[in-house]
């Protein structure tokens, strides 16, 4: 006859179940810790070089970097104007074909409308104390964002690499951008 009471086998079962639960919790905590250590990655492809299209990649990149994301912004074609010191200071807003302009396309096509739209946007930026493109570039680089200039486009458009902002990475091709995109949690084409 067994001297074990019915509660002792239940206690053993509870202890074994409790041990299994502890092991599962440890496994899940380890899994979460590994995920947190990896961090997030973002790749942005910047293809446009107008004033209104220079802001989104730089704002998104600097914000993601502030959250410790690894961020690459690959600038190609007209997007290189954002990284070119002289061109970046003179980016224009295109009124034609811009659905958010408060004027019809026929009016937007008149000579001088792009200049007027640009002046209006620059005044709004200044009045609202919004960061300039140059300030966002400096902020992005300071936070570790890698601003890449497409080498094929540099060659095609005859850019002088010395005229890009300090910290811009040149010599980068589409294959490198694609590799980073494949490894990224977020990929954006702007």
Automatic annotation (TrEMBL):
Gene3D superfamilies: DsrEFH-like. It holds the Pfam family DrsE_2. It comes from the Archaea. PANTHER family: CONSERVED WITHIN P. AEROPHILUM, PEROXIREDOXIN FAMILY PROTEIN. This is Peroxiredoxin family protein. It comes from Salinadaptatus halalkaliphilus. The lineage of its organism: Archaea, Methanobacteriati, Methanobacteriota, Stenosarchaea group, Halobacteria.
